[in-house]
Design a protein that fits this description.
The structure is a single chain. The protein has 629 residues and is α+β, with helices and mostly antiparallel strands. Helix content is 34%, strand content 19%. It is built from 24 helices and 26 strands. Strands 8, 9, 10, 11, 12, 13, 14 and 15 form an eight-stranded mixed beta sheet that branches. Strands 17-20-23-16-24 form a five-stranded parallel beta sheet, with helices on both faces. It has a four-stranded antiparallel beta sheet with strand order 1-2-3-7, covered by helices on one side. Strand 12 and strand 13 form a beta hairpin. The protein is elongated. The termini are far apart.
Amino acid sequence: MDENQEFRLRLSEGGPVAHGRLLPEKGSNGSQKFLVYAGSPARGEVVPSFPVRMVSSSRLRERLVDEGKLRPSERWPGRLELSEDVECGSPSAAAEVLLGRSANGWWEWRTEDGRALREFMPGVWAGPNRAWLIRGSNVSGIDLVQRLWLPEGRITLAASRLRQGVGQGTSKEQLRTFVKEDYDFTATYSQQQDLVEELHAFLSRFKPGDTVCTISGGQLYVGEVTGSVEQVAAEDGRSNLRRPVEWQSTGYLYDELPEELQQKLSAQHDVVDLTSVQALLGGLGLSDEELADEAEAIERDPSTELPVLTARRELALPEPTPELVRELLVHDVEWLQEVRDLLWDERQLVLYGPPGTGKTYLAQKLAEFLGGGPEQVKLVQFHPSYAYEDFFEGFRPKEDPETRDVAFRLTAGPLRELADLASREGNRHVPHFLIIDEINRANLAKVFGELYFLLEYRNKSVRLTYSGDDFALPPNLFVIGTMNTADRSIALVDAAMRRRFAFVELSPRTEPTSGLLRRWLAAQERDGEPAELLDALNSRIEEPDFRIGPSYLMKPGVHREGGLERTWRTKILPLLEEHHYGEGVDIEKRYGLAALRTERGARRARFVTQPGDLVWEEQPEPGARPAES
């Protein structure tokens, strides 16, 4: 780059412009210095967070004011102006002094034709700035973060056997060859692969202006890369790669970080790309009001929201409404509120009960209400042959549309697809729901695999079996399972699943199921006889898991001529025949419509001693067994 190349910094839209250039000299930590020319304007005020967040730049600005080098401008009322050239430690420091806020100088300093300063750095990847995690704690038993990185303003990457002369911009293919030759017999194949990825990121993908962070002592430290990579030989003869970094003055407690950020930080690599949560990193330590102050200082378009505010927008589940109560025909809003609260607290829930209790219907309608629409809901059904490859990801035969050749390719399953949709930028505050119908019919440990861990530890990530990616369940992904207790008793559910899911019973014995058919018949303005017959039937079934749910009798065909008898004969009695198989029970005599109607008629009215007086007997509670004759 031409040493005399001039760069410009505009204070505001249509406002005055500062001028300066990048210096060949570097600071003690390797940061490239920047010279701001005399006569350059500066904002008259700083944002409230500036002295706390950008301590070194704030102190430099205050010193310049005290020394009279940055003083009120006569040309631009309300602004300050430099009376002489000022040398700053980095382009970002220069921009921050003039703007009175945090700034990425590698992006904000531009040529007259609009090219950013970072475009002139040799060996730097094109594209926007990124964010990275690099680990320096407990490296060979030494905490480099506290001992070296923070005090000296740098980051390093161990390259003990890497040949000298490997510089910034080296391609991945070249690095693969170097690592193979230099680390042969000293590192396994897997270690060599990881090392190639780490070296390539540090040498070629890191660039000035990138956000970098590290963890030490339970705190996250955040900084900005301020210069090019250097290869140095340590005193013990080992080679290290290092880059200069300007660190923020304070760290952030790990346990108080946003959950999505904790997920990314838990990846078990020495170098991790954090660009997907870059907005969260940018807002650490700042309130919404302070972010708004910075946005005002930038003079952004007021119709667009700051990416930081978008990223930290709170996830919420809406409160159940009376309209939802009427639509679902439940007995009260408090029950729906409890289900909603369980989902919010646990994020996984199972609706269990006998067949016909409306588990799947309720799960779908509730998910659509809480998620804001059917497009946020995906349903899968488990079965005995269902596997991890079906549910999450695996290699499946795929035909090439051009060659028509068939080959095995890594294919995403429904959970991976929904997780990717939920974690997209702009979707992270929108609840997404996965409904697993008949969840107990599959081998859950086999289907979930390593994902079983993530159901309990939502702030962690795991390395995936097939793709090798680091994966975490998005905070806005909720799981609702349904379980038919007549198919397999809930008592068979293992402790691991009980710990990961909340369980809500839907039983003909209790609300909201016990009165559901009556409410539906009333809403349809139909005769209440089916509800009374169903209560009489369930009172004769001793085992709660085999009682019959109301949904069998909530279909239009049941209420046509002969429909009730047909449904009873073809839907309900076969279930009871299977239940009593081999017991010698006369199903028709015990559970048939004729028997139940006879009992119902006998209980409806009895004559007393005085002729003409008809006394209606009090009806038994739904689910109560009839008195022995």
